[in-house]
TrEMBL record:
<dbReference type="InterPro" id="IPR013766">
    <property type="entry name" value="Thioredoxin_domain"/>
</dbReference>
<dbReference type="InterPro" id="IPR047262">
    <property type="entry name" value="PRX-like1"/>
</dbReference>
<dbReference type="GO" id="GO:0016209">
    <property type="term" value="F:antioxidant activity"/>
</dbReference>
<dbReference type="InterPro" id="IPR000866">
    <property type="entry name" value="AhpC/TSA"/>
</dbReference>
<feature type="domain" description="Thioredoxin">
    <location>
        <begin position="9"/>
        <end position="162"/>
    </location>
</feature>
<dbReference type="GO" id="GO:0016491">
    <property type="term" value="F:oxidoreductase activity"/>
</dbReference>
<protein>
    <submittedName>
        <fullName>AhpC/TSA family protein</fullName>
    </submittedName>
</protein>
<dbReference type="InterPro" id="IPR036249">
    <property type="entry name" value="Thioredoxin-like_sf"/>
</dbReference>
<dbReference type="Pfam" id="PF00578">
    <property type="entry name" value="AhpC-TSA"/>
</dbReference>
Amino acid sequence: MVSLTTPVCEFDKPAVDFALPGVDGEIWTLEKARGENGLLVMFICNHCPYVKAILPRLIRDTRELRDQWGINSIAIMSNDPSLYEEDSFENMQRIAREMDFPFPYVYDKTQEVARAYGAVCTPDFFGYNRDLKLQYRGRLDASRKEPAPENARRELFEAMVQVAKTGRGPEEQIPSMGCSIKWKE
């Protein structure tokens, strides 16, 4: 397992459109996923210990961003599931149901969307303002393979609230860290 960190935020880079199948049977596009004040595009998977460590907090934060701040979220799974059975579409459906995801969970089978976004690891977060211009490319919080302490600063949440209020993300951002995306040969 290779651990990687995300690149620095390219402020105002436009979001890339997509049309991906969700575990809910819907086809999700950028326009369908966006919220009134922005969109958080998240590259996650089921097997990664970095994702597992943050999942309850991620669910809490994305629910609050949607309900209180008008920022929707979408989770994209781009890994090659032949490398990890846990990342299969059936397991994506199971995890989304069991964890009651407050966001669509979609499958990037061709990996074209991950490549278009420049995603490098799971989790990898792309926070967009209402104009779908990039404002955040940092971590959720201080968690690594283990959850951060309960009182850890909610970095992604705070950044996206700032984006909802001002249209701009914070200048200082700490990169996300996670497992490399499992690219197809």
